[in-house]
Design goal:
alpha+beta, 19 helices
C-alpha cells in the first residue's frame, strides 16, 4: 500500500523505493483519468465526485508523507497561534476575585480535576512548516500551570491597583511553548477596593485554544457544581487524516462548487461552503431568488471589507510598544441598562457600545484633542457556532467592523447613530468572510499571513468584544466569585482592547492598552459610568407621550 510504504519512509528517513514511486504514479494517473471523465459529467455530479476523489487520494498519499503523531490544529486556530508578536501576544487574560479566600492546593486540585476533561489543556503545540499539531504532554505538571503570585505594591498603591499592574505585565509575558498554553496565578491573600478579604485569580489562555464563547464552557466546568463536557467519540484513524480533511479536502470541495457554478445558486453554495463545505457539496442548496440576494450581499460585503477607509487619526492609533496596562470598573446594574434601551427602542448592545464611544471621545477631549466629526473602527467578534457546541473549544467566530462615532457628544444622538450602524451590520456576511480570511491565513507561511492580516490592523483602532456571562454569581471551591473580568488580545499595532462582560446581574467594562499609545487606561474606564448616567438622565427627561 502507498500509505504504509510512505509511513515507513518517514520513520526511517530513507528514500522511497522504486515500488512506492510506481504505485504513487499509478494513483496519480488514475486520479487524472477520473478527473478527465468528470469534465463531461453534469455540474452537480462533478462537484460531488471531485470532492470524493480528492478526499480518497489525498488522504492516502499525504497522511503517510506527513508522518504526524497528534491531532492537527485547525487552520483558524493556527492563524491565531502565529499572530503572536512583540507588541501583542494572543493571550486571553482574565481576573476572578473570590471571597472568602481559597488556597493554592484547592485551586490546583480543582484545575487538575476539571481541566483534564478538555484535551487542549493537556496538550502542547508543535509547529512545523505546514502548521501545528496538538501533542499530548506526557510530562504534564499541574504545579507548573497553577502558580502562586505575590503582589508587589508601590508606595500609596492599593492591592487592586497592584493586581491591575500584574495583569498588564503578564499580558506581555509569553507562555512556555514546551507546555500546554495556559497558566493560572493565584494571589491567596487579597483585599479589593470593596474591603472584602479573599483571593485573586489571574487566568492566561492562548487564543489558539479557544475563543471567548468557547472558554465560557471551561469556566462553567471549573466552578462548584460545574458540568462535564460531552464525551467525544474516539475516531480512528486520526492525526494527519483529520488535518487533511480540514486543511485540504473541505476547501477544495468548496472551490469545486464555486468554479463549476459561479452564477445564481452558486453564490449561496459558496457562502455555506465556508461553514461546512462537505455538507454543501453532498446535499446542495435551492432557492434561486434567495441565492441571488445572497450573491449580491456577498459581493457588497466583500467589497466593503476590502475597501474599508482608514480610521480618523487619533493618539490611540500608531506604532505600538511592548508594555500593557489594564483597567476595569465596578459593574453597572444590568436592569438599568435594559431600562434605558427599552425606553429608547434600542438593544442592550446599542446602549453599551454608545457608552464605549462616549467614554473614548471623552478621554480624548480631556487630553485636549478635537474629536469633531471623528470616528474609529472597532473589530467586533461575532459567534458563528451554536452555543451547545462551545465545549469543543477552538475558534469559530468572524469579525464585524463597527465604526464608533466618538465625535458625537450628545448621548441621545450618539446612541441612535450606533443603533443605525448596528442595524446595517445585521444580515451582513462580513463576519463569515473574515472567518474565511483567517482560515486562509492559517494555511500560509507566517510572513504571508502577517501581510494578509495587516489589512485589519491598518484600518482598525480597537478590538472590542461583548460576552454574556452567567446571570447568577458563581462559586469556586466554596467561595463566591465577586468580580469577574477579562481582556481580549489585539493584533499587529492595534493598541486598544475593550471588553464588556455581563455577570451576576451587572455589566462590567474592561480596557487593555499599549502604554505607548494610551498610558492611562483608567481614565477611559472612569468615563464609562458618567456616560451611562448622563444617557439615563436624558432618557428620563425626554417627552414621553402626552396628557391627552
Amino acid at each position: 500500500m502507498v500509505t504504509r510504504t510512505l509511513r515507513t519512509t518517514s520513520r526511517t528517513g530513507n528514500s522511497p523505493t522504486s515500488s512506492s514511486r510506481t504505485t504513487t504514479a499509478s494513483a496519480g494517473s488514475r486520479a487524472l483519468s477520473a478527473s478527465t471523465a468528470l469534465l463531461n459529467s453534469p455540474p452537480g455530479a462533478m462537484a460531488l465526485e471531485a470532492a470524493r476523489s480528492v478526499e480518497k487520494n489525498v488522504r492516502r498519499a499525504a497522511s503517510g508523507m506527513l508522518g504526524l503523531s497528534g491531532e492537527r490544529m485547525s487552520k483558524v486556530d493556527t492563524a491565531w497561534l502565529r499572530m503572536d508578536c512583540p507588541s501583542n501576544l494572543m493571550l486571553i487574560n482574565g481576573v476572578w476575585v473570590v471571597s472568602p479566600g481559597i488556597t493554592l492546593a484547592q485551586l490546583r486540585q480543582r484545575a487538575a480535576q476539571r481541566l483534564s476533561q478538555y484535551p487542549r489543556f493537556l496538550q502542547r503545540v508543535v509547529e512545523d512548516a505546514a502548521g501545528a499539531t496538538w501533542v499530548n504532554d506526557h510530562d504534564f505538571d499541574i504545579d507548573a500551570h497553577v502558580q502562586p503570585l505575590v503582589l508587589v505594591r508601590k508606595r500609596g498603591q492599593s492591592q487592586q491597583q497592584a493586581l491591575a499592574e500584574a495583569v498588564g505585565h503578564l499580558a506581555t509575558e509569553p507562555l512556555d511553548g514546551r507546555r500546554p498554553l495556559w497558566q493560572f496565578h493565584l494571589v491567596e491573600d487579597f483585599v479589593g477596593d470593596d474591603g472584602q478579604p479573599g483571593s485573586a485569580l489571574i487566568v492566561r489562555i492562548h487564543h489558539c485554544i479557544g475563543d471567548g464563547i468557547a472558554l465560557i464552557s471551561v469556566v462553567m466546568s471549573m466552578v462548584d457544581g460545574g458540568s462535564e463536557p460531552p464525551r467525544r467519540k474516539r475516531r480512528e484513524p486520526a492525526d494527519a487524516e483529520d488535518w487533511l480533511s480540514d486543511a485540504l479536502i473541505k476547501p477544495l470541495a468548496g472551490l469545486t462548487v464555486r468554479a463549476i457554478d459561479m452564477a445564481g445558486e452558486g453564490a449561496v453554495r459558496s457562502l455555506h461552503a465556508l461553514m461546512d463545505p462537505e455538507t454543501a457539496v453532498q446535499h446542495g442548496l435551492a432557492g434561486s431568488a434567495d441565492a441571488a440576494r445572497m450573491a449580491w450581499r456577498v459581493m457588497n460585503d466583500a467589497a466593503a471589507l476590502a475597501l474599508m477607509p482608514d480610521d480618523s487619526p487619533t493618539r490611540l492609533k500608531g506604532e505600538a510598544g511592548t508594555a500593557k496596562r489594564v483597567a476595569w470598573c465596578p459593574p453597572l446594574p444590568l436592569d438599568a441598562v435594559k431600562g434605558v434601551g427599552k425606553a429608547l427602542g434600542c438593544s442592550i448592545n446599542d446602549v453599551l457600545l454608545s457608552c464605549v464611544a462616549g467614554a473614548i471621545g471623552s478621554y480624548l477631549r480631556g487630553l485636549g484633542d478635537d474629536t469633531t466629526g471623528k470616528e474609529i473602527r472597532a473589530m467586533i467578534p461575532v459567534n458563528l457556532r451554536p452555543m451547545e457546541e462551545a465545549w469543543k473549544l477552538g475558534n469559530h467566530f468572524g469579525l464585524a467592523p463597527l465604526v464608533l462615532p466618538i465625535g458625537i457628544e450628545n448621548p441621545i444622538e450618539r446612541i441612535f447613530e450606533v443603533r443605525h450602524r448596528m442595524a446595517a451590520l445585521k444580515g451582513s456576511t462580513q463576519p463569515l468572510l473574515a472567518f474565511g480570511l483567517l482560515a486562509v491565513a492559517g494555511m500560509m507561511v507566517k510572513p504571508a499571513q502577517e501581510a494578509l492580516l495587516n489589512l485589519f490592523g491598518r484600518k482598525t483602532t480597537a478590538v472590542m468584544t461583548n460576552v454574556p456571562g452567567p446571570r447568577e454569581a458563581l462559586m469556586l471551591c466554596g467561595s463566591q466569585v465577586t468580580q469577574c473580568m477579562f481582556w481580549v488580545p489585539q493584533t499587529g499595532n492595534v493598541g486598544l482592547g475593550v471588553s464588556i462582560l455581563s455577570y451576576g446581574g451587572g455589566v462590567q467594562f474592561g480596557v487593555i492598552t499599549d502604554t505607548q499609545l494610551c498610558p492611562e487606561p483608567q481614565r477611559i474606564i472612569d468615563a464609562f459610568a458618567p456616560e451611562f448616567e448622563t444617557l439615563a438622565t436624558l432618557t428620563l427627561m425626554l417627552p414621553w407621550g402626552s396628557d391627552e
